[in-house]
Amino acid sequence: MNLMSSPNAIEYRVGSGHDTHRLAAGYPLILGGVRIDFSKGLVGHSDADVVLHALTDALLGAAGLGDIGDAYPDTDPQWKGATSSIFLNGALDLLNPGRWKLVNVDVTLFAQEPKLGPVKAAIRENLAQLLSLPVDRVNVKAKTGERVGHIGRGEAISCSVIVLIQRSSEP
Ligand code: MG
CA-CA to 52 of 20 to 30 Å: which in 93, 97, 125, 131? Predict the structure, then answer.
């Protein structure tokens, strides 16, 4: 059965994104657009916000639009030190022509340090605002690295994001 031939059928697509950045002293730690008070931060060409990078990739993936590196190459000097909400807004703009609307977002952060439990709610609220979604459609989870591997040794922070997007067969 072709769902798109049914009147008012809704088409759904899922997308996933994953990103990792190295932790080092002398850099700010920004996760989901929220500045976190910590002795180290993430190193990258832009502000190295792993949450917004993984979220941008998940949105592009759901819509079949490639990845963040296609749209914003890290060799391009104009993205040096860029606030990563620029990449997220760019991805959201790319979804508009296809009439895609975001249904929900599920974020998992992987960090041994700092403890992210106390900042999960702030990240969740900021993501909801950036995405113009109610807070109950955005979820943020935090895991440690169980003291093994690059996450567990505190060398890096990673983030995985899954999104669901939908569009109606009728404009
Ligand atoms: Mg990145």
Answer: 97
**Encoding tokens for residue 143?**
């895991």
HEC-encoded secondary structure of 35-70: EECCCEEEECCCCCCHHHHHHHHHHHHHCCCCCHHH
Q: How far is the CA of 50 from the centre of ligand 1 (A)?
A: 5
pTM of whole model > 0.85? Answer: yes
User: Is 12:102 a contact under the CB 8 Å cutoff?
Assistant: no
Amino acid in position 42: L
Distance 2 CA to ligand 1 centre (A): 37
pLDDT band at 72 (very low <50, low <70, confident <90, very high): confident
Distance from residue 87's CA to the centre of ligand 1 (Å): 10
Q: What separation in Å is there between the alpha carbon of 131 and the centre of ligand 1?
A: 19
DSSP conformation letters of 51-120: HHHHHHHHHHHHTT---HHHHS-TT-GGGTT--THHHHHHHHHHHGGGT-EEEEEEEEEE-SSS--GGGH
Q: Count the neighbouring beta carbons within 10 Å of the beta carbon of residue 170.
A: 9
